[in-house]
Amino acid sequence: MSRASLDKQPHEVAAMFDGVAAKYDLTNDVLSLGQTRLWRRAVARAVDARAGERVLDLAAGTGTSSLPFLAAGAYVVPCDFSLGMLREGKKRHPRLPLTAGDATRLPFADGVFDAVTISFGLRNVQDTEGALREMLRVTRPGGRVVICEFSHPTWEPFRTVYTEYLMRALPPIATSVSSNPDAYVYLAESIRAWPDQPSLAARLRSAGWERPAWRNLTSGVVALHRAYKP
């Protein structure tokens, strides 16, 4: 199976996620030591979807991340560019309107969503700034974006331990639970290379979003960013 490189060629990234689709949710739960469910709940609270609102869930994979918005009464569109992920999602959640789309060229009209969110997917997009501008384009004025992404632990001793876990422990664990362990070597490398919290906030501002702010989860292993469209 394929492993993407850090230049994040879209066809490589899509093929890599196609290859891990069947066990992706289970693998993430194991590798995060169960933290993914806590992070998902934090995203749902940050998005604060209301009944009747339209929510775009980017990099939605199998659609698991979209379920809290559906439960809140919002109309949610799970969108991903991995057809393998979408096919697996359709088996599990046939009611969801799973949609194929590239975050840098979204197949939606201007200003149609009240909220756009992306969890653990932005760092896999080749053109981060282009994706942030596209999210802005499809969001209505006054709407919000919520980004949940791996980040940089704030406590230096823990940051060292975490980096060692990523590069040494993660691949062997992935071998036992994933259909494509090499994909998780890429994921570990992409996490380590991702910008820190202030840098991502600056990118949001540069793309046109206002009032960017973030909250650290699990001591900064993950950061939850939120901003608004003027």
UniProtKB/TrEMBL annotation:
InterPro entries the UniProt entry points to: SAM-dependent_MTases_sf, UbiE/COQ5_MeTrFase, UbiE/COQ5_MeTrFase_CS
Enzyme class, first EC level, given as a word: transferase
The organism's place on the tree of life at top rank: Bacteria
Catalytic function, reaction form: a 2-demethylmenaquinol + S-adenosyl-L-methionine = a menaquinol + S-adenosyl-L-homocysteine + H(+)
GO MF term set: 2-methoxy-6-polyprenyl-1,4-benzoquinol methyltransferase activity; demethylmenaquinone methyltransferase activity
Pathway noted in the entry: Quinol/quinone metabolism; menaquinone biosynthesis; menaquinol from 1,4-dihydroxy-2-naphthoate: step 2/2
Family: Belongs to the class I-like SAM-binding methyltransferase superfamily. MenG/UbiE family.
Protein name as catalogued: Demethylmenaquinone methyltransferase
Gene: menG
